[in-house]
Design brief:
single chain; Rossmann fold; five-stranded parallel sheet; 162 residues; alpha/beta
Length: 162
């Protein structure tokens, strides 16, 4: 089983990934961090030969394993605009992931708690990022579910049938 957890900053993505790692033996894959049960990829090298580099990890994963990505292709689409490039290539990645039955879990929250947990610099962009993330979720072809950060664990476990 492969899961991707997406959402705006401070919506509980890492908290959910850590819960799945501890309670359901998922291997977490996040940014470029490596320790014990984490795999490494360069989060700033998303495109190599026209493909999202994290996607190149997919064939290396054990089909019987449990993996959870803390952010993936939708984040790249959201932040691509800010970084000054068009990241529409992620929709090809999305179709590839949908065909492999990778599941998307979108963490959501009301805007007020998100802004309160952000730095002043982040709070300026949070509304636009959140809106783009929801647009990306709606556009995705993956098996997907949307969960509120306040009460995500039980609904996610039911969705995953764990």
């Amino acid at each position: 089983m492969i899961l991707i957890v997406e959402g705006a900053n401070n919506t509980g993505k890492t908290t959910l990934c850590e819960f799945l790692r501890k309670q359901s033996q998922f291997i977490t894959i996040k940014d470029s961090s490596v320790n014990n049960r984490r795999l490494e990829f360069d989060k700033f090298a998303y495109v190599q030969g026209g493909i999202h580099t994290a996607t190149s990890l997919m064939p290396l994963l054990n089909p019987a394993g449990r993996y959870v990505f803390d952010r993936f292709h939708l984040t790249e689409w959201v932040y691509g605009k800010e970084r000054g490039y068009n990241a529409d290539y992620v929709w090809d990645v999305d179709k590839l992931l949908a065909n492999q039955e990778v599941w998307l879990l979108m963490m959501v929250s009301e805007m007020e708690p998100l802004v309160a947990r952000c730095t002043p610099a982040e709070s300026v962009m949070i509304g636009e990022r959140y809106s783009r993330m929801m647009d990306a979720y709606d556009k995705s072809h993956m098996i997907k579910g949307r969960y509120d950060m306040k009460d995500a664990i039980d609904p996610v476990m039911k969705f995953l049938e764990l």
